[in-house]
Amino acid sequence: MHPVLLTFGKFRMFSYGVLIALGGVLSCLIWSAKRENMGLRSEDDFWLLVNVILFGGFLGGRGLYIIEYVPFRGSDMWSAVFSVSRGFSVLGAFAGVVGAVWLLARRRRIHFLRLLDYVSLVAPFWHIFGRLGCFAAGCCFGRPTRMPWAVRFVDPVCLIDKALLGTPVHPTQLYEAFGEAGIFLGLWFLVVPRVERGDLPFGTISGLYFAAYGMLRFGVEFFRGDTVRGVFGLTGGQALCLVLLSAGLVLIAWARSKPCTQS
Questions:
Q1: For residues 116 and 101, is the Cβ–Cβ distance under 8 A?
Q2: pLDDT digits (tens, 9 = 90+) for 63-89
Q3: Residue ranges of domains in the chain
Q4: pTM
């Protein structure tokens, strides 16, 4: 693939960062169009939300990555903390963003589930670009396979295990990107209109997204080549996916127990 998009002398522009930034810009446009539906009362509230999402997502994503993959007694722990190129955990970002959005809603007196629903709606859209960035960079790579749709990473700059360079592997990044696209389209066309009409309560979008992504990621983990299996043959990511799925189902049930209101 093409981990480095452009090179200017010693400066290199990485495809992963460009795709993440592009997804972020387009996501902000969607949030801006839905600002009134989200309960945001001013331009300041909108940009505060954007900054809170970025900050909370980065802290949660980098934090869980360090807990999972970086030895606390290792010599490169602090370099991993402050690195602009080290790993990131999407599942950790979930916790970081949810916590940050809750604090914002509490501070600005905005309906938390209402706000979280629209953040959750756009999350899979942004994540599509993230997984395309992973595909370009060669991270989150799949296991070797003989399937006809297997891909080969041959650029030595790719983040794939060097032993797998040139080896046909599952395009797990694309599996997840296509799955995220399906989740986003399903929520946008089938669920959002019913929530905005008041037929479904706030919290439904978030609950469905958590549950759907938990199932998607749980399945994709079976084809990943960069994971370690533990108890019952599950990866750490799969264990967290079960927690995410359970949280989504509980949130849906809890939301349905409350009366629908758009206030």
A1: yes
A2: 777 766 666 665 665 555 555 555 667
A3: 17-256
A4: 0.89
Amino acid at 241: C
Which two tokens mark 108? Answer: 């600005």
Closest CA to 220 of 176, 169, 160: 176
Lookup: tokens for 135: 């595909």
Angstrom distances, CA of residue 70 to CA of 29, 139, 152 = 35, 16, 27
Using CA atoms, how far apart are residues 8 and 166, in angstroms rounded to an integer?
A: 27
Report d(CA 177, CA 126) in Å as an integer.
10
Residues 6+ apart with CB under 8 A from 177: 127, 128, 131, 132, 135
DSSP-derived letter for residue 151 is B
Local structure of residue 164 (DSSP, 8 states):
G
Q: Degrees (nearest 5) of the Cα angle 209, 135, 32?
A: 45
What Å distances lie between residue 189 and 39, 153, 179, 243, 260, CA to CA? 21, 36, 16, 27, 19
**What residue has token string 């209101």?**
261
Q: How many angstroms separate the CA atoms of 171 and 169, rounded?
A: 6
